[in-house]
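Re: the pair you flagged

First of the two:
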Amino acid sequence: MKHSLLVLSTGLAMFSMFFGSGNLVFPLVVGQLSDGHWALSFLGILLTGVLVPFLGILGVYLYNGNTQEFIGRLGTPATFWFPLFALSLMGPFGVLARCITVAHGAYRLIAPETPLWLFSIVGCGVIFILTIQKRRIVQLLGSILTPVLLVSLAAIAYFGLAHANVAKIAVSGKAWTSFTQGVFRGYQTMDLLAAFFFSSFLMKQLNDHKVFFQASLIGATLLGAVYLVLVLLGAAFAPRLAGIPDQEILGTIAQMALGSMAAPVVCVAIILACLTTAIVLASLFADFLKKEIAHERIPMAASLGSTLMIAWAISTLEFAGIAKILGPILDVTYPALIVLTLLNIGYKIFGWRTVRLPIAAAVLAKIITHL
């Protein structure tokens, strides 16, 4: 493969790896809650939603894609307990369930009377069937959906920003609060965890440092550009989004910007994007449950079924309910994960050996702050 094509394809793969359900919602919420200080809000989510995840990719890259070695610096027990914690949050207790609620939010703009519990049951059934055949289907959906979703977002951005006068965004409230909102919502994308577990697949193809850094620049720039547009849209439409659930914001803006005829197409793209992410996350947790917890004593169907039953129950809490559960957990643990990433990078580059004490200090400092 030619150098330029390898760089571009890897950069797009990095972008796709991070761009899931939360990435369609949290930047919009950040803009909506920015009180007009959208630039500072964007800076906050840029730091924790773009820079930090790509530091995670760099960390795993320096360990040659070996996530076990990366995590193993915390000690041997961490190679079991850390993946269990992380995959639980990314799987049925967090992001997987959140994917279902975001897809439901988009679907409600097409069929507004559909209850979440029913949509979730059908959605989990579809995920179960497609996960069994995930290789072919995820590859097909992924290769088609990323361009379709980007085109849809570009259309919403163009017509939305033209429809709403950005220059007239009212400014109020405290600028620092807007910045910290951006930082906190960046935590909730959980993309640093995704970097730990997904980027190892990319690392197997990258032996050239130049390709890695160029591809990372493309992926980070594209992700940051999409976040900037979504934050701007959230700020511009904020007065008209009062009372709209977080998971329905993008679809609502699509209706305002594109009209009732074009918006359903965007909503279908959102649903399919959530479905693709959900298949991958369900498969990851089900594999871990089957191999590491049950030690191959249960079939894959039972493991996957258990995963989706949990996801269904958690999804009924709705997007806001899931965020309330994940928010405090991530607020305490995410700084520690950032410290782990920096220390592991420092170990490979500068030979830093200290790891447990700074991480424990980061967790303790956050707990004290909460108390």
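Second of the two:
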Amino acid sequence: MATFDSCIEELLEICEQLPGFAAVQRAVLVRDIRGRLRLVIRSEQVVDAGELERALKARIGGWFVGPVLSTMSGDAAERRLAVGLCDQAKAWPPEWPTVWGRDQRPLDVTRWRGEQRVLGKQSWFGAASDPKKRVPLGQGAGVVAFYSFKGGVGRTTVLAMVAVALSRQGKKVVCIDLDLEAPGLSSYFDVSPEPSVLDFLLAHAAMGKPPADDPVQWADVHGQQIGIVAAGRLDNFYLEKLARLDYIGATAAEKSSVEQGLYVLLKRIDAKHHPDVILLDCRAGLHDLGGLSLTDLAHVDVLVGRDTPQNHAGLELALQVIARRRKPEEHRICVVQTFVAPPLSGEQARFSVERMRGKLYDACKSSLYRGLEIKPSEQDRAAPHAALPVEENNVIASAQTVQDIDDMVFGYSSIISIVNEVLRLLKREVADEA
């Protein structure tokens, strides 16, 4: 029985084996919001669309929705619709099958086109993102996204430590809480939950302009001033606000209202405060906001995870998405391995770090390193797969706020290593834009 995962492969096999299908100049496959498939074909010769439809329904059942639209058959309205869909069709999605049949024959992706109708996750798949969407570094701040596939891995804590360490090096830092479903940055830095990201986005979507209030608050952490943009106040209206965030643009080429609002927010912060670095605390998992931050907003991606099978799988998926949606010259990635058993020089820590590096190397070979003429070796410590370890620290883990952490902790070598790598990657971004 056909499944969501298999129905495209089965459709391709049926089509390619159909007598006369070789005459089809363009085939457009549309997957609707329920995951069902619809087919449009263009040909100068008549292809038996009825026979093709019967074969598809017999093979993949309800996963296919007829009729097969053809530029050569059906009534005038259907033919016009087929012509329009063929003319406007997008490239074959890179995440869809590119081979067909038991002998895995290559699919002619110059002939096939594909389009997905979705209700969300648009930022996690599709063609390469537009680097012009990101805040220009030559005139503004470097934007760094901190992302984790699993929650509870210390992502926000690492971000806070890096923020203070950057400030100690003379950098002006602003942190934005984009973990809207589970906010915590404002309480961790002990600032008010308002003004907020959520109110900024809703006002921009409703009125076409953001609130006049400065969204940045300044927290004093052992004499260092860190800018904080809170997620929002957890009151009776918070869920209502969340329910009104729109992550899908009216067209594939149009930014969603959330993306438009975030871009304006970044530009507002850049123009008013001129920070050197803006750190984004992203939502864990496959949330739309996390994908948007990774693939469309940030200049540098910091992926945070533990040495566990769940984190390995999630980080591998994130690397695949970044490799697909960002051009190779935009792969500016730093992986941070958290909760490493102390001391870092110990046998248990070394074993865990080596295992994590091996898992990431395998993941990078099929994503970031795929197609590279010269691939990094597994022992290359400057490559993305060489995760930077941060040892488990009970004092840091038990801190209620960042103020509870002793000032000397922000100078730990593991934190400074992350800071140095982020700054190195940002310099590379500046050089590329110059």
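The radius of gyration is 25 Å.

-B.
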